[in-house]
Amino acid sequence: MTNKKLHIERHLSYGALDSFIVEGLSPNEMNSILDADTWEQKTIKLQKLLNEYDNDYRDGYFLGDRWARGYGIYGIRHFGGHLIVDIGKSCD
To answer: What is the pLDDT of residues 56-77, one digit of tens each?
Structure first.
């Protein structure tokens, strides 16, 4: 794990999803997510990258595990140098 810290904030809340802006990933890191061949590969790559860095949304590391295994990742989009990620509002 590195000292790099991601800026993450809730952007929108609608229906059963919250939409978060994730800032601080490099262009290469974002491309590795967005260019993955399958949805499963995209979510796994996002999960691994979120786990590598601390963030200012939730204390501690392993936010990727919390989102992927707990709430579910339902959307990943690129917008203006950062990612917008849709996460479920509750565990299934």
So the answer is: 987 666 899 999 988 899 999 9
Nearest alpha-carbon partner for 6 in 64, 50, 42? 50
54-55/5-14 β-pairing: parallel
- Decide: 67 and 50 in contact? Cβ < 8 Å: yes
Determine contact, residues 60/50, Cβ cutoff 8 Å.
no
Q: Is residue 35 assigned to a domain?
A: yes
Mean pLDDT of the chain: 90
What range defines the domain where residue 57 resides? 28-92
Contact 39, 55 (CB under 8 A): no
Kindly state whether residue 11 falls inside one of the protein's structural domains. Answer: no
The pTM for the full model equals: 0.88
| Residue 1: inside a domain | no
